[in-house]
Amino acid sequence: WALRSIVKKPAIDVPSLWVGNLLSALVFAGAHLPQLTFHGWSLLIPVVMFSSSAGMVMGWLYMRYGLVSAIVAHFIGDLMVYVVPRLMAVIV
After folding, report:
1. Burial 68-85 (b: 16+ CB within 10 A, else e)
2. End-to-end Cα distance, the chain
3. What's the pTM value of the predicted model, to 2 decimals?
4. Confidence (pLDDT) at 91
């Protein structure tokens, strides 16, 4: 019994994981608030909604597939938000 309780991972209930994911997504959104100094505070609600949604998705990727998948998703998201529009402006 003692060995089994040491070796076996403790069960974590699913709601606790999603509450933790939500809290970390809100912190993730808060980390993206300084960009509003460049774009204007009128974008506060869209930035918080988009960043927290992206944080929830990346949190799920982390829980399901690991840290590398969340990092790759963040990198792809940054490419789509910052690089692709500038490339499109040059092409068009």
Report:
1. eebeebbeeeeeeeeeee
2. 68
3. 0.76
4. 87
**Alpha-carbon span 15 to 24, nearest angstrom:** 14
Question: Do 77 and 54 form a contact (C-beta atoms < 8 A)?
Answer: yes
Q: CA-to-CA distance for 25 and 56, rounded, in angstroms?
A: 5
**38 vs 70 pLDDT, higher one:** 70
17-48 b/e (C-beta count within 10 Å ≥ 16 → b): eeeebeebbeebbeeeeeeeeeeeeeeeeebb
Token pair 């994911």 in the structure block, residue: 21
C-alpha torsion sign, points 53, 55, 60, 64 = positive
Nearest CA among 12, 19, 25 for reference residue 73: 25
